Amino acid sequence: MQADNAKEAKELAKERIGFIGTGVMGSSMVRNLMKAGYPVTVYTRTKEKAKALCAEGAAWAASPAALAKDAAVVISMVGYPKDVEEIYLGPDGVLSAKQGGMVIDMTTSSPALAKKIFAAAKERGIASLDAPVSGGDIGAKEARLAIMAGGESEAFAEALPVFEAMGKTIRYFGPAGSGQYAKMCNQIAIASNMMGVAEAMAYAKKSGLDAKAVQETIATGAAGSWSLSNLAPKMLSDDRAPGFFIKHFLKDMRIALSSAEEMGLDLPGLKLAKKLYEELSARGFEDCGTQALFLWYDV
User: 6-phosphogluconate dehydrogenase NADP-binding domain spans which residues (predicted)?
Assistant: First the structure.
């Protein structure tokens, strides 16, 4: 069975990938797929946004359905669950046109929607995985994403070479929706950690210390985290450029809180982080990176 899976994975690697969503993350993911030798067709609502990728060798499709017809694997990396649902289940969506093969949604989305897409795909003889990622724009550029997958284990085995072109930490978590549940764990951990990082930097500045020196020092100790190492320097230099948008983080926190409520689980840290980010969004910072939480402290 393992030999058969390896053979199928090798054959899959030779076929075309359709990629929907060429934003901050998606563009880098497409480039890494092409570097790994995959022919890629992209779709984005505005063709102009795909101009650079097309100049580098990607083909362009006029709709999700058109993209799906010629792609063995369709990958999506878009903004919101409503976008995911339209892409796959809409009248001109991927599942309306695709015959066999596989679909992989790498958007951070709803576990319930992942299960819905899985069921609809299975009825059409299409394998489906939910495989959200973590690692931000840096991880996407350097093909170091953490990839959390849910769906059937056989589909995961077939998709592994595709995932390896984009990420380093790749793990299968179980049935459809499991990848999204795992990603919510990631977002929950980040939410409270970002408050801690921002408060530590605000405290360092208010106390008159060299905040950069504090950041460099405590990042090597027990307080160390990806956010402290990579986003605290951006906080201190007032770099608000998005590796991950506040508006998208708010979407994730709402999904996590909704699913936690369904489980009967109270998450006070996540609720507070959501409140602070909502206040920043109301002040016009929703298109900034998540490190802009530092602005809330106004130091």
Answer: 16-174
Q: What does the pLDDT look like over 77-117, one tens digit per residue? A: 998 999 999 999 999 999 999 989 999 999 999 999 999 99
Count of other CB atoms within 10 angstroms of residue 231:
28
Instruction: Report the amino acid identity of residue 276.
Output: L
Query: Is pLDDT at 10 greater than 90 in this prediction?
Result: no
What's phi and psi for 257, nearest 5 deg? -65, -40
> 18: Cβ–Cβ under 8 A, 6 or more apart, which residues?
40, 41, 42, 43, 61, 67, 68, 70, 71, 73, 74, 75, 94
The model's pTM = 0.88
pLDDT more than 90, % of the chain: 88
The first and second tokens of residue 105, run together, are: 């949604």
Residue 16: is it exposed, middle or buried by C-beta count within 10 angstroms (0-12/13-18/19+)? middle
CA nearest neighbour of 150 among 171, 133, 173, 134: 173
- Cβ–Cβ < 8 Å for 77, 28: no
- Point out the residues that are catalytic: 183
Count CB neighbours of 61 within 10 A.
Answer: 21
Tokens representing residue 202 in the block: 């605000």
What tokens appear for 131 in the block?
Answer: 């495989």
